[in-house]
Amino acid sequence: TLVLFIPALYISTRLIYKTSFSSQLTFGRKWNWKLYIISAAITLAVYVIYFLAMGAASEMNLSKVSAISILLFIILPIFQAFAEEYLFRGFLMQTLGSWFKIPIVAVIIQAVIFGIIHFQYNVTGMIGVLVSGIIYGFVTWYTKGLEISSALHAVNNLTIFIGILFTFMSSSDSISSMGFVVSIALLLVPACIILALNKKFNFVSCDGN
C-alpha cells in the first residue's frame, strides 16, 4: 500500500528539496481542518443519498461482519486516500508544476500516471481513475491544498470498502460504462457543492493562481 511510502517520501523531500511536510499538503497557507471536515461530510451525504435511492440498504448483508472488520474498512481507505493524494496531488503535481509552469499540464500528467498505476481495472475503469485524478488535481490547484481532494478520495474509497464488506457492491475490477458515469458524478456533484459553499463562505481563498 502507498501508505508505507509516505515516510520515505517525506524524508527524501526533506533531504533533496529541503521542504516541510506541510508544504506538500497546502501551497502557501495552513491546512484547513474545517474545509476537510465539511468536504468529507458533504461528500458522504451525497453518497448516502445515492445509495439509499438505489436501494442499497435492502441489499446489505450484516452477517459474519465483525467490529474489527468494520473498523479496518473505515480506517484503511482513509489512510490510503491520503497517501495517494500526498503522493500525486501533493508531491508529484507540485514537482511537475515547478517544471512546466503551466498548472493544467501538471494536473493532466499526474492524472495520467494515477490512472496507469490502477492497471488492475479494465480500460473503462482506468479512464475513470484518470478523470478522477483530473478532478482531484483541479480542486487541489484551485484551493491550493489537499483538503477537498483528500475528503473526496477518502469517502470514495470508504464507500467501496464498506460496499464490498456489506456485499451491496461488487469487488470486480471490470467497470461498466454506467459505473464510470456514476463514479464521476459522485465526485463532481459534491466537488461543485463544496466549491460553491467555499465561494460563499470563504473557507479558504481561491484566486485560481
UniProtKB/TrEMBL annotation:
Pfam family, one: Rce1-like
The UniProt record lists the keyword Membrane: yes
Official protein name in the record: CPBP family intramembrane metalloprotease
PANTHER family: CAAX AMINO TERMINAL PROTEASE (PTHR43592), CAAX AMINO TERMINAL PROTEASE FAMILY PROTEIN (PTHR43592:SF15)
Keywords tagged on the record: Hydrolase, Membrane, Metalloprotease, Protease, Transmembrane, Transmembrane helix
Species this chain originates from: Methanobrevibacter millerae
Domain of life: Archaea
Segments traversing the membrane: 35-53, 65-87, 99-119, 125-143, 150-169, 175-197
InterPro entries recorded: Rce1/LyrA-like_dom (IPR003675)
A GO biological process held by the record: CAAX-box protein maturation
Molecular function as annotated in GO: endopeptidase activity; metallopeptidase activity
Domain (CAAX prenyl protease 2/Lysostaphin resistance protein A-like): residue spans on this chain: 69-158
